[in-house]
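Lecture 7, part B: from sequences to assemblies.

Below are the input chains for today's worked example.
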Amino acid sequence: MERVPVLKIGDILLVSIQIDMEDQTALQLQEDLAEKIVATGCHGVIIDISALDIVDSFVGRTLATIAAVSRVLDAETVVVGMRPAVAITPVELGLSLPGIRTALNVDLGIEMLAFSRDGAWAEDAEDDENEADPAAVPTP
Amino acid sequence: MERVPVLKIGDILLVSIQIDMEDQTALQLQEDLAEKIVATGCHGVIIDISALDIVDSFVGRTLATIAAVSRVLDAETVVVGMRPAVAITPVELGLSLPGIRTALNVDLGIEMLAFSRDGAWAEDAEDDENEADPAAVPTP
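Predicted structure of the full complex, as structure tokens:
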């Protein structure tokens, strides 16, 4: 069985999906990722799908499950690298990709995770950084 | 033909090899990587082979070629994630993996690249920052 490696880069986990997702591969990936989130304490997961030719309902469901599992483990998921032609399929299939945030590439995905994490920190911690905007309106 | 995606993360390029290397795939990867080095001005390339079950002479030669091409384009290559069992094969085959530096994982590979780049910078530039911004690619 083929296995999708989970790479740790700083405090994010990166998964580059290049092989066709089958039931076993998808389950194994969910398990590996969950274990790695717990083992490393990472708060962000980036899934690159730039190698995928199509995002069908199975892939969409797999991504949604990964995002949901990660959220339970206090990690956010961003899906990056979706090709223009690929983006059309889930829309046509009526897949809403619930709970999945997307970014154009890995760099932007990392930015998105850093930004939302800073926001979360600002709420429950007092240590504001220079960059933190004091005028930012806290969400009620 | 399957294609291995080249991901840009800060000022390094990351390649996660998960599929069996065939002639066309390897050539395409070399080409994609060379183009991306030139397009982004990245100085570091990390190749993750944690998904590979074996490093035979073809894979070894491919990695060596990628490292050589990258060096010509002023980028250093580090191969990361080699599994313990996998490491035995190239030694037994007598492959010396010329010009290839290795690290245990992506984080250590990034450190290795940063360290050798800082060393190179210190020689020809005086402006040392406390924290080199990995996202900033100085265009000459």
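Note for the exam: Chain A is about 45% helix and 15% strand. Keep this in mind when comparing with the next example.
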